Amino acid sequence: MNILYGVPGEGLGHATRSKVVMAHLLAQGHDVRAVSSSRAFHVLDAAFPGRVLEIRGFHLAYKGLAVSKSRTSALILRTAPASLQQNFRQYQQLLHDFEPDAVVSDFESFSYFYAKAHGLPVVSIDNMQIISRTRLDVAVPREERGNFQLAKNIVRLKVPRSRHYFVATFFTPPVSKARTTLVPPIIRPEILAARPTAGAHILVYQSATTQHDLVALLQQLPEQEFRVYGFNKEESHGNVQLKAFSEAGFIADLASSRAIITNGGFSLISEAVFLHKPICAVPIPAQFEQWLNAAEVEKLGYGRHFGAITAENIRAFVDGLPGFAGALAGYAQDGNAVLFANLDACLAGLAAE
Q1: Which class for 107: exposed (0-12), middle (13-18), buried (19 or more C-beta within 10 A)?
Q2: DSSP helix/strand/coil, 331
Q3: Per-residue pLDDT tens for 232-282?
Q4: Span 24-45, pLDDT tens digits
């Protein structure tokens, strides 16, 4: 089949997992072209030269550590006209030598609109649909209910009436809608090949570098060794090592870590669960999906969920490491086999039509 694959540019998690699925589809003999934006485009273009078109995507705007709804809305309204014009030109270019039979969307809108305009079936593969296509098995506190409803509305409107939804997840709430299959998280080959060991250090991933007191805060726990990614610096501060970005270095530090401290991002949490690393999750405010991931980490006994990084919270997390490691020991996943088998069957059914 000829498959158009839509990948959003916001964050690199979409790109890394879509790269895994695209490689599988190409290996199965499908002709795959992708559309993406921003950093995700460059990641995919390097992996699949000549198969990726750059479009303009929408991006989140932040105020401090939190997502700003007003700034995000203003940014979208300001950039939407030019973005739509460029994307229309790119799709015209695509039509010259490629006619898709189906569209796969990783929470990406423009490929979805293309599919609907041309009467093509859409297959959704992402983790966000967990919010609207299952009955959540954690209690949502009052202060998160507004974020929950907003996220649910956005997810419902993103790729509605798709032929099937494959939802990547490390937890399994009851499915509430038809044409929905929960699958284990998509794990990149580098993580599949990693051999986890129990080192002495705790890996810290800081995506929002506005928390400038992080080093001083971690130094309040001199008995712990921390390796911190996110500031893109190589510096030593006693028990705190700031690490410049390196994919190989990050994976090695993750695989050999004692535990991790991160936000509520799905990709790193999923990799930590796969490698059986206890997780201290501090979600970015106003991002309900991150709150949900962190809440599920604590519910499953894989780690702790906190509203802020503090020395007291980290001590509480470290004290519980043996129990978290015990809970994680029961997690098992056969690579990406479950998703691939279900996706292949789905596409075979579409081809038969």
Answers
A1: buried
A2: coil
A3: 899 999 999 999 989 999 999 999 999 999 999 999 999 999 999 999 999
A4: 999 999 999 999 988 899 999 9
Q: What is the mean pLDDT of residues 280-287?
A: 94
Fold type of domain 2-187+335-352? Rossmann fold (3.40.50)
CA distances (Å), origin 10, targets 13, 32, 55, 73, 314: 9, 21, 12, 15, 29
Please enumerate in sequence order all residues whose Cβ is within 8 A of that of 154, keeping only pairs 6 or more positions apart, or say none: none
Six-digit token string for 112:
């979805």
Q: Tell me, what's the pLDDT at 15?
A: 93
Three-state secondary-structure class, residue 258: coil
**Calculated CA dihedral for residues 307, 309, 310, 316, nearest 10 degrees:** 80
190-329 topology per CATH: Rossmann fold (3.40.50)
Quick one: 274 exposed, middle or buried, by C-beta within 10 A (0-12, 13-18, 19+)? buried
Overall average pLDDT of the 19-27 stretch? 98
Rounded to a whole number, what is the distance in angstroms from the first to the last CA of the chain?
Answer: 12
Q: How far apart are CA 165 and CA 8, in angstroms?
A: 17
Q: Name the phi and psi angles at 183, rounded to 5.
A: -130, 155
pLDDT at 58 over 60: no
Closest by CA position to 333, among listed 195, 198, 183, 196: 183
For the chain, residues classed under CATH 3.40.50.2000 are 2-187+335-352, 190-329
